[in-house]
C-alpha cells in the first residue's frame, strides 16, 4: 500500500510517500480502506517534530482518526462486517501488562495510508448520509467535547459557557455541543475572522481576546455574573488567567490541550474563595462517540472543514496548519490502489 512514512523527526519535509506492506488484521482486528483522515496540531505536528510527550517508534505513520470501509476481518470478529462504513477512536487498549492506553497514530501506525488495522472495538458505524470527511472531523473532537462539557463540567441548560480557541477543531465543536446542551455561549478567539467563524457555528457572543480585555468583556456580556463553565484548550500563560477570572462563583474550568504552551499562572486565592474547579481530561466513552455521530447525521453538529487535500499533499497541509493559515480542519482524502480495491 501507499503510506506517508516518517523515518526521522523534523519539519514537514520528513513526510514521504512510500510503498509499504499492506497490514493484515490480527485476531479481533479489522482492516479499513481509509477514505479520510484529519491533520491535528498535537497528534500529528508535534509527533512529526519529535515534541510529543509519549515515545514514538520510527519508522512511523501518523493519523489518529481515519474513517473508511472495512475490507478484511481478523479471526473472532463478530461486531463488524466487510463493507461497514466506520470511524475510529484513537484510544486503543494496552497490549502488555502495565502499559497505559495506546493512541492510534502514536504508539501504532495510523491512517496516513491506504489501509489501517484497528481493533473492532475501536470502530464505530457511520450513520447514513454522513460523508467520510465530515465523520472523521466529528469523531476526532465532538466526543471529547461531550465528555468535557456534559460529564466533567456538568453543564446544564441556561448556564453560560466561555469557549476558548472557539474557531479551532476542539473549540468549534465545543461551541456546538454547548448549544446542544442548552447553554448560552461566548466564543473567545484570536481575531475578528475567527470570532465570526465561531458565531457562524452557533455562538451567541464573541470576544477577540487578542484585542479586547477578555475578563471585562465576559463580565459585560453576562452583566457581572461571569460564566458557569470555561471550556479551555489553549493553555496560554496570558489568556488562561483571564479566562479563569471570568468564572462565576462555583464555576468549572475544563481543559484538554496546551497549544499555547501549557504552563500557566493560577490564582489559588480565587480558586478557593469562589469555590472553583479546574478539571483536565482527554477521555471519552463509546457513548460520547455514538451520540456525536448521531448529532452530526441529524445536522446538530457541523464539521468545520477548512480544506480537503489528497494524501500526497500532507506536507503542505502540515505547513499550512503550522503557519496558522487554517481555521477549521484540514482533511486528507485517500484513494486505494491495492488488492482490496472493490
* Name given to the CATH architecture of the largest domain: Alpha-Beta Complex
Q: Measured on Cα atoms, how large is the radius of gyration?
A: 20 Å
Order of helices and strands: EEEHEEEEEEHEHEHEHEHEHEHEHE
Supply the number of helical segments: 9
Helix content percent band: 25-40%
How much is the average pLDDT?
93
Low-confidence stretches: none
According to CATH, the homologous superfamily of the largest domain is Medium-chain alcohol dehydrogenases, catalytic domain
Shape: globular
Which class do the helix and strand fractions yield? alpha/beta
Portion in strands: 25-35%
How many beta strands in the DSSP annotation? 17
Number of individual domains: 2
Query: Roughly how many Å apart are the termini?
Result: 15 Å
CATH topology of the largest domain: Quinone Oxidoreductase, Chain A, domain 1
Q: How would a textbook summarize the main sheet?
A: 7 strands, mixed
CATH class designation of the largest domain: Alpha Beta
What's the quick description here?
This protein has 342 residues and is of the alpha/beta class. It has two domains: 2-125 and 304-333, Alpha-Beta Complex (Quinone Oxidoreductase, Chain A, domain 1); 141-280, Medium-chain alcohol dehydrogenases, catalytic domain (Quinone Oxidoreductase, Chain A, domain 1).
Amino acid at each position: 500500500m501507499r503510506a506517508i512514512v516518517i523515518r526521522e523527526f523534523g519539519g514537514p519535509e520528513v513526510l514521504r510517500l512510500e510503498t509499504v506492506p499492506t497490514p493484515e488484521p490480527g485476531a479481533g482486528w479489522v482492516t479499513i480502506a481509509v477514505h479520510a483522515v484529519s491533520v491535528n496540531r498535537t497528534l500529528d505536528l508535534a509527533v512529526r517534530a519529535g515534541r510529543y510527550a509519549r515515545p514514538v517508534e520510527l519508522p512511523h505513520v501518523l493519523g489518529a482518526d481515519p474513517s473508511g470501509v472495512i475490507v478484511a476481518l481478523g479471526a473472532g470478529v463478530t461486531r463488524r462486517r466487510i463493507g461497514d462504513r466506520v470511524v475510529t477512536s484513537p484510544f486503543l487498549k494496552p497490549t502488555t501488562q502495565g502499559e497505559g492506553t495506546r493512541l492510534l497514530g502514536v504508539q501504532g501506525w495510523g491512517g496516513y495510508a491506504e489501509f489501517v488495522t484497528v481493533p473492532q472495538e475501536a470502530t464505530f458505524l457511520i450513520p447514513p448520509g454522513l460523508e467520510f470527511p465530515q465523520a472523521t472531523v466529528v469523531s476526532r473532537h465532538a466526543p471529547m467535547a461531550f465528555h468535557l462539557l456534559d460529564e466533567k463540567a456538568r453543564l446544564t441548560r441556561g448556564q453560560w459557557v466561555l469557549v476558548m480557541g472557539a474557531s479551532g477543531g476542539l473549540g468549534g465543536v465545543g461551541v456546538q455541543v454547548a448549544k446542544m446542551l442548552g447553554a448560552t455561549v461566548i466564543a473567545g478567539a484570536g481575531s475578528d475572522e475567527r470570532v465570526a467563524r465561531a458565531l457562524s457555528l452557533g455562538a451567541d457572543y464573541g470576544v477577540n481576546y487578542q484585542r479586547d480585555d477578555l475578563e471585562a468583556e465576559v463580565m459585560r456580556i453576562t452583566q457581572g455574573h461571569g460564566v458557569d463553565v470555561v471550556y479551555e484548550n489553549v493553555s496560554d500563560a496570558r489568556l488562561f488567567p483571564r479566562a479563569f477570572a471570568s468564572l462565576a462563583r462555583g464555576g468549572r474550568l475544563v481543559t484538554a490541550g496546551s497549544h499555547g504552551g501549557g504552563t500557566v499562572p493560577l490564582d489559588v486565592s480565587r480558586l478557593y474563595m469562589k469555590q472553583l474547579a479546574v478539571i483536565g481530561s482527554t477521555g471519552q466513552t463509546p457513548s460520547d462517540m455514538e451520540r456525536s455521530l448521531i448529532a452530526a447525521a441529524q445536522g446538530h453538529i457541523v464539521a468545520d472543514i477548512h480544506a480537503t487535500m489528497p494524501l500526497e499533499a500532507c506536507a503542505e497541509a502540515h505547513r499550512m496548519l503550522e503557519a496558522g493559515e487554517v481555521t477549521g480542519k484540514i482533511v486528507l482524502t485517500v484513494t486505494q490502489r491495492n488488492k482490496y480495491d472493490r
